[in-house]
Amino acid sequence: MLLAASSCACGGKKNTAYRVPPAPPIAGGAGELPPTRIIVPAEADEPEKQSVPGIHVDPNSPILWSEVGYASWYGPNYHGRKAANGEIYDQHQMTAAHNTLPLNSIVRVINVKTGQSTVVRITDRGPFIVDRIIDLSKAAAKEVGVYLPGTAKVRVEVLETPRPIESGGRWCVQIGAMQEQAAAQELKNRLLQRYSDADVIKFKGPTGYWVRIRVPKDDKEMTRQVFDQTEVYEGGVFMVRLD
Prior knowledge:
The chain has three helices and eleven strands; from the N terminus they run ββββββαββαββαβ. With 243 residues, the protein is an alpha+beta fold.
């Protein structure tokens, strides 16, 4: 059975898997503390809710969920490819990638340092880099001052969502990116032996080869167990919502 799998690691520590274009170092200098991911309550002096072309925000909608962390952006190598929600990714539209929010959620992104803000729709998954919480389209990155520095500390506020955030959903563990197909195949073979009840697939993306683990019924808690138990020498390990 899946849950009877050994808890020994598949390799070394979880490492960072970089997307294209290569994200520059987080601004702030060598002495800055590592980026934080914090769930925070709504503040009394929230900026006025806003809309952008193609996205309408109800001015009376409450903030459903919020977090603080680092944003990056993705563009050229993904432009024109299918996003996680089935649409074709257009770097000039106001969209973003997030690993755990329900697809098609509407969120406001606020640059903590400058106060610049915009609203985007979650259409894709990522960023597949440790300590990044959201990957903005090129257009959205320009609106909030992320485009030129490559990263910035932001607050993400969920304004609308088609499904519950904290419960339910369909989940998987995604591992990558690996530069050699042979390494991805070897990892897939080991994971198939370890998680005999799971569906393990290997696929190629713009940044290399990936392996995805889907447990029975894409159950969230079982997926979390696999995520907690799995470590690799190359790439990173990420828990990702599918819907």
